[in-house]
Write a structure and sequence with these properties.
The complex is a heterodimer. By secondary structure, chain A is mainly α. Chain A has 13 helices and no strands. Chain A starts with 7 loop residues before the first helix and ends in an 11-residue tail after the last helix. Chain B has a domain of 180 residues: MetI-like fold (Orthogonal Bundle). Classes of the chains: A mainly alpha, B mainly alpha.
Chain lengths: 277, 265
Amino acid sequence: MKMKWTSYPYLLWIIIFILVPLVLVLLYAITATEEHISNLEFTLDNFNRFLDPKYFDVLWVSVKLALQSTVMTLILGYPIAILIAKEKPSKRNILISLFIIPMWMNFLLRTYAWLTLLGKNGIINFIISQLGFGPLDLLYNDGAVLLGMVYNFLPFMILPIYSVLVKIDNSLMESAEDLGANKFQVFTKITLPLSIPGIITGITMVFMPAVSTFVISRLLGGGQYMLIGNLVEQQFLWVGDWHFGSAISIIMMIFILLTMAITAKFDTQKKGSRGLW
Amino acid sequence: MVGKILKRLYIILMFLFLYAPIIVLIIFSFNESKSRGTWSGFTLKWYIELFRDAEVLKALYYTVIIALSASIISTIIGTFAAIGIYDMCGINKKIVLNLNYLPVINPDIVTAVSLMTLFRFLRLEFGFVTMLLSHITFCIPYVILSVLPKLQQMNKHLAEAAMDLGATPMYAMKKVVIPEIIPGIITGALMAFTLSIDDFVISFFNKGAGITNLSITIFSMARRGINPVINALSTLMFTGLLILLLVINKRSTKNLNKEVKLYEK
C-alpha cells in the first residue's frame, strides 16, 4: 500500500517549525547585531564573549549541578526501581503510579511549595528549631536548587530503570543463585548489566532538563541566581541580545548532543533506528 | 526481617519526599491567611473566590483550550505522519525519524527560543496562534513515537487483504489500520494533552499580550506570592485526576483479573 503521502503535511511542518527555526538560531549566533536581516555580518564574537570567566562560571555551575542531580537521582532512584520491580504485579502497578501521580500537579507549583517547606519560618526549620538548633538558611543557595532538581527529576530516573527491570526474566537470577552466586554477585553480574539501557535513558532524561532549567533556579535560587538557562532567558526576554542568546543556545545544544553521544557509547544494546545515535 | 522493614521505610521516605510539597499545597488551600508561611485557621473561601477570580479563570480557559486544540491537531497530523513514515524505507525513514526526534532531545528552552525566533522572523504577532503552533510542534513527535510501535506490531498483510477483497485504500485505512493502532493513538493524544497542559517554558517564550496559561500565571505570581486561589484550583484538578485514575484502574484491574482467570483455565 502506498501511504507515504500521508506524512507529507508533517514533513512540511518539520521544515517550517523544526528546521528553519534552528537554522535561524544558528544564523543569529554567527552574526552581529544589525537592524535589518539583509546586512548581517559574519562574526564569532558571540561565542568569544562566552569565554569570559563570568559566563564560563555560569556554564560550570550549571553542568556541576546537573551532574550532581543526575548522580543523586540515580543513587536514590535505583533502589526504589529494584524494590518495586520485585513486588507482585498488582502491587507494583500501584506503587509505580504513585511515583507518576505527583507529576500531575503543576511542576512550578510543586517547586514553589518547597519555599514553604524550606523557608525561615518553614516546616523544616520549625522541626530543626524544636530539636534545639538555630534556623538554617535552606533557601536561595546551591543546595536548594539541587534539591529542586532531584525532587522534580527523580521519577524520570526511576521510571526507565523500572521498566527495564520488570522485563528481566526472573529465571536468570534464579539460575545464577542455583549455580552458587550470592545476592551481591547476582546484582553485579545480572541485574546491573541488564538494567544499563534503563540507566542510560534515566541519565539523559535527568541531565538534559537539569542542565537547561531556568525555573527551578529562579524559584529556589532567588532572583540573582544564574544558570545557563537563566542566561538564555535573560538574553532573549530582558536584554534583547538575540545574537548572544542564540550563541548560548547553540553551545547548550552541542553540549547535550555530546553528552548523549557519550552516554550512548556505554549502551551496548542499541535499539537501532529509535535514537539519533 | 530487619531488611524488609528498612526497605519499607525507604519507600515511605521517598514517597514523603515526593508528596510533602503536594500535601503542603493542599493544606494551604484551606488556610485562612494569604501568607504561605503561617497557618491561621480553616476556610473554604479560596474555593469560592476561585470562581470569581477573572485572571485565574482566564488562564485556566486558555490552558484547556490550547491543550485540547493542540492535542487534537497533533494527534491527527501525527497519526497520518506515522502511517506515512511506516511506509517509508531506508535513508529517508531514518532522516525523518531523527528530525522527529529533535524536539524530544532538544532542551525545552532551545525549542522555545528557536520558535520565538521563527515567529519574529515571520512577523507573526505573539499571542494565541504562536502559542498553539508551538504546542502542536512539541506534541506531534510524541504522538508519532506512540503510534509507530503499534504499526510495527500490526500484521502488514491485513490492509493488503482488505484491498484484495475490494476495499479502497481509504476504506482499508478506516476499517483495518486505524482500529489496529487505536491504542497508540489514544496514548499519543493523552500524552500530548498532558504535555501541553503542563508546559511552561515553551509557552513562556511564545506567549503574547493578554494570553497566558496557568503555568505562566503561577510563575509571574511567584515573585509577589502565589494567590491561594491557585492552590484551591490545583487541589481540585489533582483530586479530579486522581479519581479518574482510580476509576480507570478499577476497570483495568477487573479486566486483568478476567485475563488471569482465562489464563488459569
